[in-house]
Design brief:
The chain is an alpha+beta fold and 95 residues long. It has one helix and four strands. A four-stranded antiparallel beta sheet has the order 1-2-3-4. A hairpin with a 2-residue loop joins strand 1 and strand 2. The longest helix is centred in the C-terminal third of the chain and has 15 residues.
């Protein structure tokens, strides 16, 4: 049996190029359940296999000192690599 689950993250910090980015969103998992047995074949247990199937960002922010405010860079031209770095960092943390 396969079920889906989400784990939300808020203000997940990503350091890149002397700038701290904050990510908000969730990680979606596929969780597969199966029944396994012991080596004797008498005892059974439920085994879980958890795999990340999607990472979704609501916001990807950084503090701009010149403007003195937080700036959202989600979907902005020139910041695609930051989204990839953030996705890799979150995948590493939540696997």
């Amino acid at each position: 049996m396969i079920r889906h689950d989400r784990e939300y993250f808020k203000d997940f910090e990503i350091e890149h190029d002397f700038t701290t980015y904050l990510a908000n969103g969730y990680v979606e998992y596929d969780i597969e359940e199966c029944i396994g047995g012991s080596y004797e074949g008498y005892d059974f247990e439920i085994l879980y296999h958890k795999e990340i199937c999607d990472i979704h960002f609501y916001e990807l922010l950084y503090y701009n000192e010149r403007m003195d405010c937080m700036v959202d860079v989600m979907g902005k031209p020139g910041y695609d690599y930051i989204e990839e770095i953030a996705e890799d960092a979150i995948r590493y943390e939540y696997e």
